[in-house]
Amino acid sequence: QGPLVESGGGLVQAGGSLRLSCEASGRTFSRYATGWFRQAPGKKREFVSAITWNGLRKYYADSVKGRFTISRDNANNTVSLDMDSLKPRDTAVYSCSDGIEPPVFAVYYREAGPYYAWGQGTQVPVSS
Fold it and tell me: Fewest C-beta atoms under 10 Å: which of 30, 37, 60, 123?
């Protein structure tokens, strides 16, 4: 399987917006769900958001709910994360993930371990 490739990161001021994109290079996303995680310097990787294959179910961490929106375009093999009202504490490397199995997803979608495909990540520094 080909890699996942993230894009769209970059320096942004607090209160600003960014759109991150994740493309499944040379393949399609696994047919269940795709997630976004982030890792701030010196901290553990944490769940940000996830979306099922059909786009009908979307999940968010409490810390980003109401500010971030996940979406997908299966025709173009892309999953996006629109981030609004960014805060300095959103500063992290953001990675997309794929490959989690349906029975596991229902319970463990917030855990990084069950996802078996990852991108390299894209940096999002938010200045105050």
Answer: 123
